[in-house]
Fold these 3 entries.
Entry 1:
Amino acid sequence: MTMSVQKHEEKEIRGRILKALDFEFPRAMSLQMIDYALQSARYTCSPGQIKAHLAYLAQKGYVRLESVGLADLDLRRDMVTLTVQGKDLVEGNVPDDPGVILSG
């Protein structure tokens, strides 16, 4: 049985997110910059889909999510940081994760 194209692309998107964060490591990236990085690679994701991928990666311990700024004044930004576990995955220092495709 082969993996569906949609499931394969979701795994690729998670890998692209980790690679983008690795490029900025140890600095954080905003959700807007992650969206831009995905668009540059010709992936089409809604903000909700990106947040779902980030939630998955956060639950795996690969990224840390944080809101910064003043929420009361609508000056808040959501930021994402690659963790050391995420860095190890990107660098191949730990076994591959079946939910993330890093090749390509």
Entry 2:
Amino acid sequence: MKESIDKKFMLGISEEAKTIFKAVLKELNLNENIKVKLDFAVLSIFSQACIDYAKFNEKLQSDSLTPNEYYNLYNNRQLAKKDIMSSASKLGLTPTDRKKFGIEYTGDRKPTEVEKLLGIK
């Protein structure tokens, strides 16, 4: 099963993005409250956009950027952010979407694998 998912649905994304892809897939498959037909293309976009956003954000911290380099990195980061927001909603990963599925995180809980990978507390 793993190889067929890798070959069929994760073409064109980085190894780092594949880690996020698999973690989201696992999380959504383990939660019986979520009844979403997964669109693997959207999941690939989400996974790669998370990696891209982090990389662009890290590069933007550099003091040696020219104004043009900064502008290009900033715009690319904004595009990655837009991809994350739109694909997260389609996958049922936003708080509003989780609420639709009757999933509300309250009180103390352990972070999910996806939250750990993305550094969300």
Entry 3:
Amino acid sequence: MAEKPVVSEKPVTHTVMVKVEGKKVTCDKPYVIAHREEMIEWRIDKELPFAVVVKAHHSPLQWAAHAAPGGGKPLVVKVRKDAVPGLYPYALCVCAGSTLVVVDPDIIVPVPKGGRG
């Protein structure tokens, strides 16, 4: 009997598009619903420095704060395998000229399938 080939699935990626107009910063998603081990990616429309800071005692992400690599490249992170379900506000910080602009969206980590947190 032939064995089925192992298929490697890429994790789901949630993309947040960040738009900068002068000193106004917006993102296309006021919140992201991301399950454990899924990816979140922030993309900015200009080559400006930006960072994400999770405003919680325990971050559901692999880090609590991180700056984008620069040059308009996206900032990508994985939701932790042991992330506690809940609502996590975060600060999206963008250097727009000489001004630091901060917007406050949310990350929502739902209860895993099967209902056990």
